[in-house]
Amino acid sequence: MTKKPLWREIWDFPLVSLVVAIAAFVAVFAGVTYLFAQFDIPLSKTGKIVLNGLLAPALALLLAKFLIPRLGDNRRDDLAWSGAGRMLLIGIAGSALLMTVIFAVVFALGGYRVDGWGGMTSWAMLLFIAGLRAGVVEEVMFRGILFRYLEDFGGSWFALAATSALFGVAHIMNPNATWFSSLAIAVEAGVLLGGAYMLTRSLWLSIGLHFGWNVTQGFVFDVPVSGNEVDGVLAAHPAGSVWLSGGEFGLEASAVALAIAGGAGAWLTVKAVREGQLVRPWWTRRRLAREAEALAA
């Protein structure tokens, strides 16, 4: 095996790649935020929401497609076009079914009440911000960058635990958030989305799951999305105890969602392990490689 020069060893080290990828991500979105603040775009409020919901995901996808695959020692494209549509649809349908089951169970137990039809006035925010922007941008950041390089360094279990915890903490500043709601998001969403990424080694399934989860709970069932009030197809509101309904934060803080979505995430993770997708820590891989070279010599 040809030994790489020292500078290349440092450049390809997983934590260095992590810092470079995060820096690029922050720089791009800081620049876009600055431009939006400098120019008065002649669009309505809805038009600006739609533009933001299209531009941010497009930039995140460009980073994930053309920069991130060129960093690190384990270079791969997490946005391969082959099978992308299928994985997106499976993710959207799967999370829609998951959220429908959660809402149905909570509703049957008296945790939610439906008063009739809603006004659907939040459609732009739900589809383009909570759905498209959150689904793409957050998945590129948490799974496409953080999970990818933390896994390359510390292995799959380390990456899954770290990104799930960070995903929960990232929602602690949301409206109506509590420490329990962040813990619930870490377990149900962090493990579900991380498990999907481990299983497929692609961002498409996790993007579809994230999009479908937010849109179904907010646009269809009128449930607050991570604490943000919405106006959906139905007019619904929590009626039972907070542990059952999730209160003003929404069903993501419900014990029912914690059990059902957490179970789905655990299933995906176990499936990934059984299919040989578990990655060992960097130092273990290095040791095994050296032992293999010694045996071959």
State the gist of this model.
With 297 residues, the chain is mainly α.
Question: How would you describe what is shown here?
Answer:
With 297 residues, the protein is mainly alpha-helical. It contains 11 helices and 2 strands; from the N terminus they run ααααβααααβααα. A two-stranded antiparallel ribbon has the order 1-2.
Task: Give the topology.
Blueprint: H1 6-12, H2 14-38, H3 45-67, H4 84-108, E1 112-117, H5 123-154, H6 156-169, H7 179-200, H8 204-220, E2 234-238, H9 242-245, H10 255-274, H11 282-296
Antiparallel strand pairs: 1-2
Record keyword descriptors for this entry.
about 300 residues, two-stranded antiparallel sheet, 2 strands, about 5% strand, globular
The stretches of 5 or more residues where confidence is low (pLDDT under 50) are none
Shape: globular
From the N-terminal CA to the C-terminal CA, the straight-line distance is: 11 Å
The chain-level structural class is mainly alpha
Strand order within the widest beta sheet: 1-2
Radius of gyration, in angstroms, nearest whole number: 21 Å
* Element pattern in H and E: HHHHEHHHHEHHH
- Please describe the biggest sheet, giving its number of strands, its sense, and whether it closes into a barrel: 2 strands, antiparallel
What is the number of helical segments per DSSP (H or I, 4+ residues)?
A: 11
- Please state roughly what percent of the residues sit in beta strands, choosing from under 5%, 5-15%, 15-25%, 25-35%, 35-45% or over 45%: under 5%
